[in-house]
Amino acid sequence: MNRDFSNVSMAVIRRLPKYHRYLKDLLEKEVYRISSRELSKLIGFTASQIRQDLNCFGGFGQQGYGYNVEELYQEIGKILGLNKTYTTVIIGAGNLGQAIANYPSFIKYGFKLMGLFDINPKLIGMKIRDIDILDLDYLEEYISKNKVEIGIICTPKEVAQEVAERLADSNVKGIWNFAPVDIKVPKEIIVENVHLSESLFILSYLLNEKENLQG
Ligand SMILES: NC(=O)c1ccc[n+]([C@@H]2O[C@H](COP(=O)([O-])OP(=O)(O)OC[C@H]3O[C@@H](n4cnc5c(N)ncnc54)[C@H](O)[C@@H]3O)[C@@H](O)[C@H]2O)c1
């Protein structure tokens, strides 16, 4: 049964991957039970924040016992949809596209990379870990034939919008966009942007702020 979390704020949802990561680490260390206070020390959120966050999903903890780490890990995984599998393609098989294709962990969470697409004849026909780099001309046909659900955009920013539109017209459900541009697609397609430079600029700001405070 699909539970409805549509009224849970995105701020809470965006914290779930961090809970998931810490719970995985705990399981690897064979820690099976944890209080919100102990979790708070590890994660850096307050204990009351943790209780509030997890209560949004029905509350997993038990007074006097804390959280069952395995159960919480599995449940957060389910809320995040990590118990499902997704078919993906990468568009743009340059530095970043190849790095993502070479990263083995996404498959562990159910994201199956089917193919990479590029326009560069030198790359087309090559393989990254057994996965073909294909000609962009076949994108729509391939997506339809293989029921691809997610397109990962790793092209230069100048062509990202055009690529996004082709993905949208091919009926992908989601786009993971790494190009530093805000792409526009029909609202039924979910877009998640990863703008690495924005994070880097925040680091730069914080470094400068620290220097200014130190005089
Ligand atoms: N490399 C990084 O660490 C990094 C970090 C943050 C963001 N990005 C962004 O990710 C994108 C890719 O970066 P990169 O370093 O891999 O660049 P890159 O130049 O190495 O690769 C881009 C690839 O896209 C291909 N391409 C160009 N037009 C295309 C099209 N219309 N359809 C399909 N493929 C096309 C090119 O042939 C090339 O292989 C850029 O938008 C960049 O700003 C990269």
TrEMBL record:
Residue stretches making up the CoA-binding domain: 81-182
Q: Cross-referenced Gene3D superfamilies, in alphabetical order?
A: NAD(P)-binding Rossmann-like Domain (3.40.50.720), Winged helix-like DNA-binding domain superfamily/Winged helix DNA-binding domain (1.10.10.10)
- Which amino acids does the record list as binding NAD(+)? 92-97
List the keywords (alphabetical): Cytoplasm, DNA-binding, NAD, Repressor, Transcription, Transcription regulation
Chief site of localization: cytoplasm
Q: Which residues bind DNA?
A: 18-57
Pfam family of the protein (one): Put_DNA-bind_N
Q: Which family does it belong to?
A: Belongs to the transcriptional regulatory Rex family.
- What is the protein name given in its UniProt record? Redox-sensing transcriptional repressor Rex
The organism named in the record is: Alkaliphilus hydrothermalis
User: What gene is this protein a product of?
Assistant: rex
